[in-house]
């Protein structure tokens, strides 16, 4: 196989975090001491991907600035002998070969993925959404790449959720396979009402897709919310008996949802508690704080 590339859609308006996202991209909101999008890039790099395309919109230049070098800051830290911070600053500009393209109009996730067609070409590629942070100790993306190489199918990440919460996600209808941890996806529904959901298996923000998805997205009509939905294109692929099909990798590991304010705060706390440099002081404070509630 050709070396895989990754696509990170980052053109959303971030309205849930207004007014913080009025001038700052939601992907640049700090999670402990790194912007959320850096965790996503690091995950792709950890899975062996070093060519990454970020789909951006207006007022998103801070994202490209973050992954660029800042010589004056690096010189100042070097002069101060602050090698720890210097290393962390330089890491973000040395992570991978990162490219940017504008989405233009916010026409949905499917449209954002379609904007990657020229860069990706005719190879399979990974799509990573910035609202879902996967713990660096997990191997989800690597497992998904392995599943694609084994089956040739589109691969989606699935996670069991409370049935009452399935309306916040795409939901998958699945059948078991002979391969533990991999299911055949027979249908997908975008944000169904709980009583209409085919299962409580939610599609979370990781995909490994064959390049044939682009042809489907080209003819996919706007769906829920008036947007071109990636879920609709995957549904067509799942229903095509002569195509590559769609499989799911069921994930039960550590995932941090930064999609709304409460979950964003939870993500910061969970990641900080696990840090060697922060957890020792934070854990006893959290226990004391909880006891006083």
TrEMBL record:
EC number: 2.7.7.9
Protein name from the UniProt record: UTP--glucose-1-phosphate uridylyltransferase
A matching Pfam family: NTP_transferase
Organism encoding this protein: Microbacterium esteraromaticum
A biological-process GO annotation: UDP-alpha-D-glucose metabolic process
Family statement drawn from the similarity comment of this UniProt entry: Belongs to the UDPGP type 2 family.
CDD domains hit by this protein: UGPase_prokaryotic
GO molecular function: UTP:glucose-1-phosphate uridylyltransferase activity
Domain spans labelled Nucleotidyl transferase: 5-270
Tagged with keyword NAD: no
InterPro entries: GalU_uridylyltTrfase_bac/arc (IPR005771), NTP_transferase_dom (IPR005835), Nucleotide-diphossugar_trans (IPR029044)
Keyword Nucleotidyltransferase: yes
